[in-house]
Design goal:
three-stranded antiparallel β-sheet; 28% helix; globular; 6 strands; 22% strand
Length: 145
């Protein structure tokens, strides 16, 4: 099982965005779903959080680049704080009085793996996306590089 897991809301259940006379299923709206962390038997987010997976993906990119040390969950009410700290080649993930340690390279690989699985799932939605879907998909995919 991967460290970072997600499931996307079925396309038919996603609410289009935009003006009432021209709503569309934009790339970001199609990322609606559930995200959770599976650190062996530990679940820092419990059964997961329902929101736009793109928001969490962007936060994971910031952690991957070491530009942030906290998973951005501010959009949720009463969200737990999940922090990452680097000590040598080890990363420690801490939340609500518990923690999980892993090699730094494993964290980076888990983020890359999440990125690939997430963009693969989004590619399957391309035929239902709005006119900018392909451009947004390609642009965002390159952000990990």
């Amino acid at each position: 099982m991967a460290l970072f897991e997600f499931e996307l809301t079925p396309v038919d259940a996603v609410t289009p965005w935009g003006p009432p006379n021209a709503p569309e299923l934009c790339w970001y709206a199609l990322t609606d779903g559930r995200f959770w962390i599976q650190a062996e038997s530990k679940l820092p987010l419990g059964p997961g959080v329902w929101f736009y997976a793109a928001q969490i993906w962007e936060s994971l990119l910031d952690i991957h680049r070491e530009e942030a040390s906290v998973l951005n969950l501010r959009f949720l009410e009463a969200a737990p704080e999940v922090t990452f700290s680097w000590v040598g080649d080890t990363v420690r993930m801490v939340w609500d009085g518990d923690s999980y340690e892993m090699p730094q390279e494993r964290l980076r690989q888990e983020i890359r793996d999440f990125h690939e699985r997430f963009f693969g799932a989004m590619a399957e939605r391309a035929s239902r996306g709005g006119p900018r879907f392909a451009v947004d998909q390609a642009l965002r995919y390159s952000w990990l590089e």
